[in-house]
Design goal:
Structural class: alpha/beta
Number of strands: 8
Low-confidence stretches: none
Mean pLDDT: 95
CATH class of the largest domain: Alpha Beta
Bound molecules: 3-methyl-2-oxobutanoic acid
Strand content: 5-15%
Helix content: 25-40%
Shape: elongated
Number of helices: 12
Largest sheet: 8 strands, parallel, barrel
CATH architecture of the largest domain: Alpha-Beta Barrel
CATH topology of the largest domain: TIM Barrel
Distance between the termini: 55 Å
Strand order of the largest sheet: 1-2-3-4-5-6-7-8
Length: 293
Amino acid sequence: MENDIPRTKVTAPAVLARKGGPKLKMVTAYDYPSAVIADRAGADIILVGDSLANVVLGYDETLAVDVDVMIHHTSAVARAEPAAMVLGDMPWLSYHVSVADSVANAGRMVRDGGAEAVKVEGGRKRLDVIKGILDAEIPVMGHLGLTPQSVHAMGGYKVQGKATEAAREMIRDAVALAEVGVFAMVLEGVPSLVAEIITKEVNVPTIGIGAGPLCDGQVLVFHDVLGLHDGHLPKFVRQYARLQETAIEALQSYFDDLEKGLFPNEDESYSMSEEAATALLRDEPRGDAFDAF
Ligand code: KIV
Protein backbone atom coordinates (compact mmCIF):
# COMPACT_ATOMS: atom_id res chain seq x y z
CA MET A 1 0.00 0.00 0.00
CA GLU A 2 1.23 3.48 -0.87
CA ASN A 3 0.81 4.70 2.72
CA ASP A 4 3.30 2.15 4.05
CA ILE A 5 6.15 3.16 1.76
CA PRO A 6 8.54 5.76 3.22
CA ARG A 7 8.69 8.56 0.68
CA THR A 8 11.34 11.11 -0.14
CA LYS A 9 10.52 14.75 0.46
CA VAL A 10 8.97 16.46 -2.55
CA THR A 11 10.85 19.68 -3.32
CA ALA A 12 10.44 22.41 -5.92
CA PRO A 13 13.23 20.99 -8.13
CA ALA A 14 11.61 17.55 -7.86
CA VAL A 15 8.27 19.00 -9.00
CA LEU A 16 9.96 20.82 -11.88
CA ALA A 17 11.66 17.58 -12.94
CA ARG A 18 8.24 15.95 -13.31
CA LYS A 19 7.45 18.03 -16.43
CA GLY A 20 5.97 15.61 -18.94
CA GLY A 21 6.52 12.71 -16.51
CA PRO A 22 4.16 10.93 -14.13
CA LYS A 23 1.18 13.17 -13.35
CA LEU A 24 1.60 15.45 -10.35
CA LYS A 25 -0.93 14.76 -7.60
CA MET A 26 -2.00 17.86 -5.71
CA VAL A 27 -4.80 18.35 -3.21
CA THR A 28 -5.67 21.01 -0.67
CA ALA A 29 -5.51 20.47 3.09
CA TYR A 30 -6.13 23.02 5.78
CA ASP A 31 -5.24 21.30 9.04
CA TYR A 32 -3.17 18.53 10.62
CA PRO A 33 -5.51 15.53 10.11
CA SER A 34 -6.29 16.38 6.49
CA ALA A 35 -2.56 16.80 5.81
CA VAL A 36 -1.86 13.36 7.28
CA ILE A 37 -4.60 11.83 5.10
CA ALA A 38 -3.40 13.61 1.94
CA ASP A 39 0.20 12.59 2.55
CA ARG A 40 -0.60 8.96 3.33
CA ALA A 41 -2.70 8.83 0.15
CA GLY A 42 0.40 9.78 -1.83
CA ALA A 43 -0.01 13.49 -2.62
CA ASP A 44 3.01 15.17 -4.20
CA ILE A 45 1.90 18.64 -3.18
CA ILE A 46 -0.41 19.71 -0.36
CA LEU A 47 -1.82 23.14 -1.09
CA VAL A 48 -2.95 25.15 1.90
CA GLY A 49 -5.25 27.08 -0.39
CA ASP A 50 -6.98 30.33 0.45
CA SER A 51 -10.08 28.31 -0.50
CA LEU A 52 -10.01 27.51 3.21
CA ALA A 53 -11.99 30.76 3.53
CA ASN A 54 -14.97 29.11 1.79
CA VAL A 55 -14.36 25.48 2.65
CA VAL A 56 -13.59 25.51 6.36
CA LEU A 57 -14.31 29.05 7.57
CA GLY A 58 -17.71 29.56 5.91
CA TYR A 59 -16.94 32.79 4.03
CA ASP A 60 -18.31 33.49 0.53
CA GLU A 61 -14.98 34.54 -0.96
CA THR A 62 -11.30 33.78 -0.60
CA LEU A 63 -10.76 37.52 -0.14
CA ALA A 64 -11.71 37.09 3.52
CA VAL A 65 -8.43 35.56 4.69
CA ASP A 66 -5.14 37.34 5.41
CA VAL A 67 -1.56 36.22 6.01
CA ASP A 68 -2.15 35.51 9.72
CA VAL A 69 -5.01 33.11 8.92
CA MET A 70 -2.96 31.43 6.20
CA ILE A 71 -0.03 31.00 8.58
CA HIS A 72 -2.32 29.50 11.24
CA HIS A 73 -3.51 26.80 8.82
CA THR A 74 -0.22 26.30 6.97
CA SER A 75 1.63 25.65 10.22
CA ALA A 76 -0.97 23.01 11.18
CA VAL A 77 -0.35 21.25 7.87
CA ALA A 78 3.43 21.58 8.24
CA ARG A 79 3.30 19.98 11.70
CA ALA A 80 2.11 16.79 9.98
CA GLU A 81 5.64 16.70 8.46
CA PRO A 82 4.39 15.37 5.13
CA ALA A 83 6.68 14.00 2.45
CA ALA A 84 4.50 16.04 0.12
CA MET A 85 5.52 19.63 -0.47
CA VAL A 86 3.71 22.12 1.78
CA LEU A 87 2.57 24.88 -0.58
CA GLY A 88 1.16 28.03 1.03
CA ASP A 89 -1.26 30.22 -0.90
CA MET A 90 -0.45 33.92 -0.78
CA PRO A 91 -3.77 35.55 0.18
CA TRP A 92 -5.31 38.61 -1.44
CA LEU A 93 -3.47 41.88 -0.69
CA SER A 94 -0.41 40.06 0.62
CA TYR A 95 1.41 40.59 -2.71
CA HIS A 96 -0.43 43.51 -4.29
CA VAL A 97 1.00 46.48 -2.40
CA SER A 98 4.74 46.46 -3.09
CA VAL A 99 7.53 44.03 -3.87
CA ALA A 100 9.09 44.55 -0.42
CA ASP A 101 5.78 43.87 1.30
CA SER A 102 5.21 40.75 -0.83
CA VAL A 103 8.66 39.34 -0.07
CA ALA A 104 8.14 39.95 3.65
CA ASN A 105 4.74 38.22 3.55
CA ALA A 106 6.11 35.25 1.59
CA GLY A 107 8.92 35.06 4.14
CA ARG A 108 6.38 34.89 6.97
CA MET A 109 4.56 32.06 5.18
CA VAL A 110 7.84 30.15 5.17
CA ARG A 111 9.31 31.12 8.56
CA ASP A 112 6.10 31.18 10.64
CA GLY A 113 3.88 28.89 8.57
CA GLY A 114 6.37 26.23 7.51
CA ALA A 115 5.52 26.61 3.81
CA GLU A 116 8.15 25.22 1.45
CA ALA A 117 6.88 27.24 -1.50
CA VAL A 118 4.15 29.80 -2.14
CA LYS A 119 1.50 30.21 -4.82
CA VAL A 120 0.70 33.58 -6.38
CA GLU A 121 -2.27 34.34 -8.64
CA GLY A 122 -1.81 36.34 -11.84
CA GLY A 123 0.36 36.67 -14.90
CA ARG A 124 2.65 39.37 -16.30
CA LYS A 125 1.45 42.07 -13.93
CA ARG A 126 2.80 40.01 -11.00
CA LEU A 127 6.22 39.36 -12.50
CA ASP A 128 8.08 41.91 -10.34
CA VAL A 129 6.58 40.47 -7.18
CA ILE A 130 7.30 36.88 -8.22
CA LYS A 131 10.87 37.81 -9.09
CA GLY A 132 11.30 39.45 -5.67
CA ILE A 133 10.03 36.35 -3.87
CA LEU A 134 12.25 34.10 -6.00
CA ASP A 135 15.23 36.35 -5.21
CA ALA A 136 14.53 35.64 -1.53
CA GLU A 137 15.05 31.94 -2.39
CA ILE A 138 11.38 31.04 -1.99
CA PRO A 139 10.02 28.82 -4.79
CA VAL A 140 6.87 30.21 -6.41
CA MET A 141 4.01 28.41 -8.15
CA GLY A 142 1.99 30.54 -10.57
CA HIS A 143 -1.79 30.45 -10.98
CA LEU A 144 -3.58 31.56 -14.18
CA GLY A 145 -7.11 31.46 -15.57
CA LEU A 146 -10.00 31.69 -13.14
CA THR A 147 -8.13 33.32 -10.27
CA PRO A 148 -10.65 33.57 -7.41
CA GLN A 149 -8.96 36.59 -5.82
CA SER A 150 -9.94 38.54 -8.97
CA VAL A 151 -13.63 37.63 -8.59
CA HIS A 152 -14.81 41.25 -8.69
CA ALA A 153 -12.50 42.26 -11.54
CA MET A 154 -13.62 39.20 -13.55
CA GLY A 155 -17.30 39.91 -12.80
CA GLY A 156 -17.83 36.52 -11.15
CA TYR A 157 -16.36 33.02 -11.25
CA LYS A 158 -16.17 32.52 -15.00
CA VAL A 159 -14.11 30.23 -17.20
CA GLN A 160 -11.26 32.35 -18.60
CA GLY A 161 -9.59 32.33 -22.02
CA LYS A 162 -12.63 31.29 -24.03
CA ALA A 163 -12.17 34.02 -26.64
CA THR A 164 -9.20 33.75 -29.00
CA GLU A 165 -7.40 36.93 -27.87
CA ALA A 166 -8.01 36.17 -24.16
CA ALA A 167 -6.54 32.70 -24.72
CA ARG A 168 -3.49 34.20 -26.44
CA GLU A 169 -3.00 36.64 -23.55
CA MET A 170 -3.10 33.73 -21.09
CA ILE A 171 -0.54 31.81 -23.14
CA ARG A 172 1.73 34.92 -23.06
CA ASP A 173 1.24 35.11 -19.28
CA ALA A 174 2.15 31.44 -18.91
CA VAL A 175 5.32 31.81 -20.98
CA ALA A 176 6.32 34.89 -18.94
CA LEU A 177 5.75 33.05 -15.65
CA ALA A 178 7.87 30.13 -16.82
CA GLU A 179 10.62 32.48 -18.00
CA VAL A 180 10.76 34.35 -14.68
CA GLY A 181 11.28 31.01 -12.89
CA VAL A 182 8.10 29.61 -11.32
CA PHE A 183 8.58 25.90 -10.67
CA ALA A 184 5.01 25.03 -11.78
CA MET A 185 1.72 26.76 -12.47
CA VAL A 186 -1.94 26.08 -11.74
CA LEU A 187 -4.35 26.51 -14.65
CA GLU A 188 -7.86 26.96 -13.25
CA GLY A 189 -11.12 27.15 -15.19
CA VAL A 190 -9.71 27.34 -18.72
CA PRO A 191 -10.72 25.50 -21.92
CA SER A 192 -8.85 22.21 -22.34
CA LEU A 193 -7.29 23.38 -25.61
CA VAL A 194 -5.77 26.45 -23.97
CA ALA A 195 -4.36 24.31 -21.13
CA GLU A 196 -3.00 21.87 -23.71
CA ILE A 197 -1.23 24.65 -25.64
CA ILE A 198 0.22 26.16 -22.45
CA THR A 199 1.40 22.73 -21.29
CA LYS A 200 3.23 22.29 -24.59
CA GLU A 201 4.61 25.85 -24.63
CA VAL A 202 6.10 26.06 -21.15
CA ASN A 203 8.96 24.04 -19.70
CA VAL A 204 7.44 23.86 -16.21
CA PRO A 205 4.63 21.55 -15.07
CA THR A 206 1.05 22.74 -15.40
CA ILE A 207 -1.42 21.63 -12.77
CA GLY A 208 -5.02 21.78 -13.86
CA ILE A 209 -8.30 22.32 -12.08
CA GLY A 210 -11.15 22.60 -14.54
CA ALA A 211 -8.52 22.72 -17.30
CA GLY A 212 -8.97 19.34 -18.97
CA PRO A 213 -6.89 16.17 -18.89
CA LEU A 214 -3.70 17.24 -20.65
CA CYS A 215 -1.97 19.19 -17.87
CA ASP A 216 1.09 17.74 -16.13
CA GLY A 217 -0.92 17.25 -12.93
CA GLN A 218 -4.27 17.95 -11.31
CA VAL A 219 -5.42 19.62 -8.11
CA LEU A 220 -8.75 19.35 -6.31
CA VAL A 221 -10.12 20.64 -3.03
CA PHE A 222 -9.96 18.00 -0.26
CA HIS A 223 -13.55 18.51 0.89
CA ASP A 224 -14.87 18.30 -2.70
CA VAL A 225 -13.10 15.00 -3.49
CA LEU A 226 -14.26 13.42 -0.27
CA GLY A 227 -17.82 14.77 -0.27
CA LEU A 228 -17.38 16.51 3.05
CA HIS A 229 -19.92 19.22 2.29
CA ASP A 230 -23.17 19.48 0.40
CA GLY A 231 -22.61 22.84 -1.27
CA HIS A 232 -22.50 23.44 -5.04
CA LEU A 233 -19.83 21.44 -6.83
CA PRO A 234 -18.32 22.76 -10.06
CA LYS A 235 -18.58 20.37 -13.03
CA PHE A 236 -14.85 19.61 -12.96
CA VAL A 237 -15.04 18.01 -9.52
CA ARG A 238 -15.18 14.25 -9.29
CA GLN A 239 -16.41 13.14 -5.88
CA TYR A 240 -14.73 9.93 -4.72
CA ALA A 241 -16.62 9.50 -1.42
CA ARG A 242 -19.55 10.92 0.48
CA LEU A 243 -17.95 11.40 3.86
CA GLN A 244 -20.45 13.98 5.08
CA GLU A 245 -23.19 11.33 4.91
CA THR A 246 -20.90 8.77 6.54
CA ALA A 247 -20.07 11.23 9.33
CA ILE A 248 -23.72 12.09 9.98
CA GLU A 249 -24.64 8.39 10.13
CA ALA A 250 -21.77 7.70 12.53
CA LEU A 251 -22.77 10.54 14.85
CA GLN A 252 -26.43 9.42 14.73
CA SER A 253 -25.34 5.92 15.81
CA TYR A 254 -23.39 7.43 18.71
CA PHE A 255 -26.39 9.53 19.80
CA ASP A 256 -28.73 6.50 19.44
CA ASP A 257 -26.46 4.38 21.66
CA LEU A 258 -26.33 7.21 24.16
CA GLU A 259 -30.14 7.51 24.24
CA LYS A 260 -30.50 3.73 24.71
CA GLY A 261 -27.92 3.60 27.49
CA LEU A 262 -25.63 1.46 25.36
CA PHE A 263 -22.72 3.87 25.48
CA PRO A 264 -20.36 3.80 27.29
CA ASN A 265 -20.12 0.12 28.20
CA GLU A 266 -17.80 -1.45 30.79
CA ASP A 267 -14.87 -1.78 28.38
CA GLU A 268 -15.14 1.92 27.65
CA SER A 269 -15.15 2.91 31.34
CA TYR A 270 -12.50 3.07 34.10
CA SER A 271 -12.56 0.96 37.27
CA MET A 272 -10.89 1.31 40.69
CA SER A 273 -9.43 -1.31 43.00
CA GLU A 274 -11.88 -3.37 45.00
CA GLU A 275 -10.32 -2.09 48.20
CA ALA A 276 -10.76 1.55 47.25
CA ALA A 277 -14.31 0.87 46.06
CA THR A 278 -15.25 -0.90 49.30
CA ALA A 279 -13.90 1.95 51.39
CA LEU A 280 -15.72 4.47 49.29
CA LEU A 281 -19.01 2.59 49.44
CA ARG A 282 -18.74 2.13 53.20
CA ASP A 283 -19.31 5.86 53.69
CA GLU A 284 -21.86 6.17 50.99
CA PRO A 285 -24.52 7.44 50.49
CA ARG A 286 -24.12 10.31 52.97
CA GLY A 287 -24.83 13.88 51.96
CA ASP A 288 -22.24 15.17 54.41
CA ALA A 289 -19.58 13.06 52.67
CA PHE A 290 -19.55 15.72 49.98
CA ASP A 291 -19.47 18.71 52.30
CA ALA A 292 -15.74 19.01 51.87
CA PHE A 293 -16.29 19.86 48.21
O1 KIV B 1 -7.15 27.93 -2.92
C1 KIV B 1 -7.21 26.90 -3.62
O2 KIV B 1 -7.76 25.87 -3.23
C2 KIV B 1 -6.62 26.95 -4.95
C3 KIV B 1 -6.81 25.77 -5.84
C4 KIV B 1 -8.19 25.70 -6.33
C5 KIV B 1 -5.84 25.76 -6.95
O3 KIV B 1 -6.00 27.92 -5.29
